[in-house]
Amino acid sequence: MRHPTLSPRPTSARPPEPVVEPPIRAEQEPDPSLEFLRLLWRLNHAMERRSRRMQRDLGVTGSQRIILRLVGENPGLSAGRLAQLLHVDPGTLSSALGRLEAMDLLAREYDPNDRRRVQIRVTPQGERYRRHDPDTIEGSVLRSLGARSPEEVRLVVAVLTELAVDMDRESVG
């Protein structure tokens, strides 16, 4: 059923003229902040897609893989310190650690020097996820950063760090 306020479509034999969208300002002379946000949005969606593909092809998501990589580089890391490194809530991390433990990729053990502290380590099964894989999120990161000078990499890290710190503040102004 057609919408009551729309006129019927013409029935001429001639094909309709193509609709030409007006140029978008962002494509002509982009506002740097809007362009940056647009690219962050694109990157976020690309990371989500890659993470789903990693789950399908490798058996772990992007976030699970970074946990395995960080724990593997820092054996005996506590869950609290890992949550700080990843900038996530400890409760959120605890759920992720539980899933990795259920998959036999991580193990949590009491610290022999302080029984109140739990240490995390990668299991032998989890070690295979620590190897470099070009089809992972960090494979893309390594390729992109490898194509840049050390100064360009430092600048990108500085801008992203500054943005994260600013956004982590409870209120601005």
Question: Can you characterise this structure?
Answer:
The chain is mainly α and 173 residues long. The chain has a domain at 58-130: Arc Repressor Mutant, subunit A (Orthogonal Bundle), CATH 1.10.10.10. Helices cover 56% and strands 10% of the residues. It has 8 helices and 3 strands. It has helices at 25-28, 32-58, 62-73, 79-86, 90-102, 124-127, 137-146, 150-168, and strands at residues 77-78, 106-111, 114-122. A 3-stranded antiparallel β-sheet has the order 1-3-2. A hairpin with a 2-residue loop joins strand 2 and strand 3. The longest helix is centred in the first third of the chain and has 27 residues, at 32-58. The chain is elongated.
Strand and helix map with partners:
Elements: H1 25-28, H2 32-58, H3 62-73, E1 77-78, H4 79-86, H5 90-102, E2 106-111, E3 114-122, H6 124-127, H7 137-146, H8 150-168
Antiparallel strand pairs: 1-3, 2-3
Task: Throw out a few tags for this protein.
Arc Repressor Mutant, subunit A; three-stranded antiparallel sheet; mainly alpha; 173 residues; single chain; elongated
